[in-house]
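Replying to the earlier thread about multi-chain prediction with a worked example.

Input:
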Amino acid sequence: MLHRSISHWRRALTAGQISPTELVQELDAAMRSKNPAVNAFISWDTEAALAEAAAADLSLPLGGIPIAVKDNICIQGQPTRCASRMLGNFKAPYDATAVCRLRAAGAVPFGRANMDEFAMGSAGENSAFGPTCNPADLQHVPGGSSSGSAAAVAAGMAIAALGSDTGGSIRQPASHCGVVGIKPTYGRISRYGLVAFASSLDQIGPITQNVEDAALLLNVLCGHDAADSTSSLHPTEDFTSALGSGVKGLRIGLPVEYTSAGNAPEVEAALQKAIRTLTEAGAEVVEVSLPHAEAVVSAYYIIACAEASSNLARFDGIRYGYRVPDSAGLSDLYSRSRGAGFGSEVKRRIILGTYVLSGGYYDAYYTKAQKVRALVAQDFTEAFKGVDLILGPVAPTPAPRLHDDSLTPLQVYLSDIYTIPANLAGLPAISLPVPGAGALPVGVQLLGPHFAETRLLGAAAALEAAWS
Amino acid sequence: MSTPGINVAYIARLAELELTPEETERFSRDLNQVLAHVAELDKWDTADVQPMYHPLPVFDAVRPDEPAPSLPREAALANAPQQQEGMFRVPKVVESAH
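Result:
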């Protein structure tokens, strides 16, 4: 029953078939029954949500709609722990701009979604609050790092959720869980109140039951914010405006580099199905080339870890966060508080980031990676001269099994190859489930030029309609 | 770029990040493997390429310099592990020369 869209619930609410508080109670019941097995939520405050729901203005675009929020996006007065011991006692002193915008549109933030600690991971297993399981098969991971956001929407514990995407953290879990996830153009949504991982790559975005819901949420979330100097001044638009316009006449590029690699059969099947459907619907699918595709993982992990090592320097046990009870001076306090507060993957990335920024290595690694990043972005600029959108896989495989320790960190990093490019180049990209591609959910990805979200959503909606 | 091998214990001191001996050993192994992989970036000629520090062109993103309310002191201190008289409490910072 809770696998219904925002527009379904908006109709039910405005027709008086259900009240906003009843809707919160329905979700609370779903969380109580399903969360013990799925672990999509770290915490939820039903009392606060009921109070807000009781006051919800149903005339607003999202009036009375509860939205789950990833644990790295601040909600005033609520725990915002980034799934880390480091922030175990932290309560956000203010709302993130994205949360302010949800509230201003009448939505009710409800539920702190589990995640990989500080958004570092692709499986949802790097959480100090335990791994999240994939609702489609509890023996498998939901993907990450927005593991709880995707799993909650897939399990009917949330109508929609906010996630964040630094290298695929919205799109990959959406693909693994069988829901829709969009990373907007860099700068579309303010990052104010999003705990920073890699500031030149991070972007907030929605995870939803369908494409229309993603567009409805973007309508509310996008826009310039004086509190985030990187938020874009580009005008916003009605992102639902192309949902019915189909793909007839669109040219869709298929990177040759994306089909040759060792994709799982289910991933290939999903891609082929998307190509067939697009072609039947009147789009032209043509080959394009992204010559630097193989370099993206290396460039990304240097840049992301460098930025993370700088951003996470703020967690020093002084202003907020974990602090060892005793210390032999300031340096000892920093070092042991950070050592005890951070989990393994976060420490690994801080070390890598500190190394590539350290004296003698800065140019060889960091500057080199930023130059390769420019080449990756240039590939897309060239490709979009000939096509309107680009189609590709989201991840090379469906969701791996839980607790598979056989992979090295490098092997795990390499699985981000198809999602990283949109972050490096700042492009909008959407992950869309492909029904029937395998036993587990599998998605395909569409990427667009900067600020082409409306076109992207229109094409995704056409695929979704053809498959429903 | 050469991959001389990362000295994890030294980098951990730079990062003010205490590691266990087990973590130091494991991260050395993991990160040397990662660094060997990223050395492949050398194959791309970037001599005439400007580094890209930001995904979109950004020009002078400054706001008007107007006074506005900031977070109240109580709110800013609410998450501090230790506070005293409206301030963050820290260990002794100035250490005597030995």
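The first strand of chain A starts at residue 41 and ends at 43.

Feel free to reuse this layout for your own posts.
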